[in-house]
Amino acid sequence: MRQNGDQQYADLLSNLRVGKMTEEHHNMLQTKLITSDGRANVQNICQTYKTLTNKGQSPLILMPKTSLCDEVNVAMLNKIGNTIHRITAVDTLNTIVDRRLIKKCSKHKTKAKKM
Q1: Per-residue confidence at 1, pLDDT binned at 50, 70, 90?
Q2: Distance from C-alpha of 42 to C-alpha of 46, rounded to nearest angstrom
Q3: Span 100-108, mean pLDDT?
Q4: Which of 15, 27, 33, 59 might form a disulfide with 20, Cβ 3.0–4.6 angstroms?
Q5: Does residue 72 contact residue 48 with C-beta atoms inside 8 Å?
Q6: What pTM, to 2 d.p., does this model score?
Q7: First-to-last CA distance in the chain?
């Protein structure tokens, strides 16, 4: 888990997943922005990631859209200089999940948290 050992950050990510954010969480995220004057571009993101990893950190990049995540991943892979191979996954299991089962599991988790 990327946020292991940082409960405050783990709580922030958990709340973001369900659309809840406190003022404290907002302020924490503001201190982590790559650029303060708008959205960072792919070059900014890659450079910041490289800088942080060179310092021994393990940065987590939160992206607003999957398409931007794809752009950054491709840019980082291109910087490595190796050939990129695309392998299409074939799902051989027929894994249709019953929605009632999902709801039941969700309710069970909610009850467990209250205890």
Answers
A1: very low
A2: 6
A3: 65
A4: 15
A5: no
A6: 0.54
A7: 24
Token pair recorded at residue 73: 């991943």
> Token match 């302020």: residue?
27
Under 8 Å between Cβ of 63 and 54? no
Give the C-alpha separation, 33 to 46, whole Å.
13
Q: In this structure, what token pair is assigned to residue 63?
A: 């992206």
Q: Under 8 Å CB-to-CB from 21, ≥6 apart: which residues?
A: 12, 15
* pLDDT score of 72 more than 80: yes
* Whole-angstrom distance, CA of residue 53 vs CA of residue 56: 5
- Cα separation, 66 vs 68, in Å, equals 5
Distance, in Å, from the CA atom of 64 to the CA atom of 33, rounded to the nearest integer, reads 13
